[in-house]
Request: fold
Amino acid sequence: MRRNIGSQLLASVLVNAVYAMKNYPIMLSYTFLSPLSMLLVIFFVSHGSLLGIGIEGGFIMAMVLSGVSMQGDLSHLKNDLKIQDMVVSSPTTAFVYILGMAISELVYSLPSLVTLIVLAALFIHTSLMGAIEIFLAMSLMFAFSIALGFMLSTFSSDVIQSWAFSGIVSTFLATIPPVYYPITYIPLPYRYIAYLSPTTYAAQIAQNAAGYVAVPGAILAIDWIVLIAVSIAIFIIAAKKTRWREK
Amino acid sequence: MQGLVCSNISKRYETGKVALNKLSMSVESKGIFALIGRNGAGKTTLIRILATQLSPTSGAASLNGVDIIKDPHGIRERIAIVPQEARATPWLTPHETIFSYLLWRGFDTGEAHERADRAIKRLAIEEYADKSNRFLSGGIKRKVLVATVIASEAELIFLDEPTTGLDPISRNDLWNVLNELKKDRFIFLTTHYLEEAERLADNIGIIENGKLLGIGTLEELRKKVKYPYSIKMLDAGKKAAVRPKSGKVIRGLDGNSQILTSQKEAYAISDQFIKKGIKFSMNPISLDDIFYYLVKKPIENGEEHEEEYW
Reply:
């Protein structure tokens, strides 16, 4: 029988986003509020001066939350409902299942993403090249967080464990690193710690692309190299360590 | 090789627990095969290995010539499973549950809708088709899961303890469905309800401590027990007041004495019981008796209770 990969992707999007949003609309407010609430705080604290950087931070937060949410969703589908077991024993491959789930997280994030895109169009003034740079950096952050989320989900045996993973990942990737403000706001000894998070590099690229900070070319190149390398590394680790068929 | 074949399958978990110990079996891929065993006997481990969810430590398995261990993708085209403790997704309706599963199997949306409708009709759950799963009873939810896998094209369907926790009426309903379904599919089910295996299965396997103690039709399994008749004493606490010339007296699952013996001896003993006014029942041995005979332990409490009176 010829398998339709489009159908297999659609299944994940329907189960994890469309049908879920239809039945539990309250979940929309969570994905909507999380990136925007921090933006609001930054806006008030900076008297509006960091609005543009904050919007970019909101995008990064939304990308990271996609992986965090996917980790929780996958854990729930696997451990509580056993849907993943049914999918493992079906013609769907791990890659197609995860790709579908990743798309479903984007669908789930649409309210916040649309709001951020509107705000970006109004308040971030950049060139086409700058917009492409921001888009690529966000895409890498999304891919990174999705791979991380999938890997963590395969190691969690209970949804409560996955909540702990979610809290740790979102704290270290989106709350502590300087994604809503320039890294220069962090005193120097602590700045090096911020560089442990790949979101710091993505934020620096985005802030430079929009003209909020001027990053030297060499530093920018390092930002890209680190971001790409970390994303590739996490993909390789995820591909090797994740357990579709358990050992 | 045709049928479902397992050769020396062993599974040792990282904790060191040996769940399967060189299990070998061969069963025709049609009708219903029921694997019975106590909790922790290895039923779910075997079904998860055969459904490609778990790797064995060693051994081989195939379905109609397709290698289950080495070619998981090839076998996944042919199988479907309702895992133990699977739950109908609470935020979906039965139709959405079946439809989305069929999409995962790669059906086009049109065919997925048609197959979902047919499966819903086949399991007679039309009135619930568009209600949220979270408002359905346990029995209907279980039917939704069974409908989900039978809507697929899978030739082998694994059902891991499909009726656990269901009330007797819901269980009977599901048995009727499975009896109908086995006409065109091969169903591999695990259960610890012996009555379920007796009612449904064409072939039965008995597993204990990761080893297969017996496999075959009910008649073939009966032959494994030397004594084809069972006399159960119905007076609690009374021991068999007779000494059969051949046979075995054991304490049955209900605590009363039970005599396993030949047909001729069973009739002779029953005559004596009638004369002495002892209440008893006499039957060809059931799957319960066979299971108890092979496993030599009551199913529920795990205590050793075998008494030989001679």
